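Please review the protein record below. Let me know how this chain folds according to its tokens.
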Amino acid sequence: MQKKIKLWLRASIIFCLVVLPLILIFLPANYFDVGTSICPSKSFLNIDCLGCGITKAIQHLLHFEFQIAWDYNKFSFVVIPFFAYVWVKQVLEYYNYFAKSK
């Protein structure tokens, strides 16, 4: 039973760390550009918060459309390197953990 859980955990981690970023890369750059905002600040007060447009900006950054990303949210140029650092750190951490547990 514990071996099944460990295998399921490995598969989940690999999916989250590898497949989900690949999905974002293969989606079109303008995939998130349409639709209404789910931000409460934007919906109720019609005021942009610091996070408004960050998803759209990150998607455009992943496709190297820097000017469009800058127009959506300037903060995305700080968020992407931070996410990349955390992603690499997690990949190495899980790799070392699973390499030791074999």
Q: What stands out?
A: The mean pLDDT is 86. The radius of gyration is 17 Å. Residues 2-100 form one domain. The chain has one domain: 2-100.
